[in-house]
Each structure stands twice: as C-alpha cells, then as structure tokens.
Amino acid sequence: MSSALKLIAFKVATEMLRQPGCILIEMKTKTRDGHEFYIVPGGPVSEETAQKILEHPLCHKVDSGLFPGISQSWSLYSG
Q1: pTM for the model
Q2: CA separation (Å) from 49 to 1, 26, 46, 59, 60?
C-alpha cells in the first residue's frame, strides 16, 4: 500500500475551489512527500497546478496568512 497522496488535477481543483469552505493553502515547509500546496478539504496539488489556480481571474485571498501581507490561502468561491 502506497502512502503517497494522489495529486488533484487542475480542472478538478478549480471545481472544488468553487464550493463554499474549500480553499487552496500553501504550506511553508515541505512535507515528507514534498507537496507544498493543498486543497482543503481534498488533497495535494502540484506547484504547477497551484500557480495556474493563483493566476485564475476568479482567484482571491481568503486571509492574510501567518505574516501580514503574505497570503497563504485562496479560493474561487465568491458567495
């Protein structure tokens, strides 16, 4: 049994992020698998997928993150 988590594809990730309460988060420290971005709830996305999400015209900050002015979570939900 593999402990590696399956990466969420861009299309699925954007569909998930349009749902209330679903966010993209950036982890500042690498985990055992090396993933730094996660859809919560959901799972990991590649850095490339995360970058495409951040460039999406509907993407917006959810909070200001741990340090002021440095975002660590985003969503596509506008409700």
Answers
A1: 0.80
A2: 26, 12, 5, 13, 16
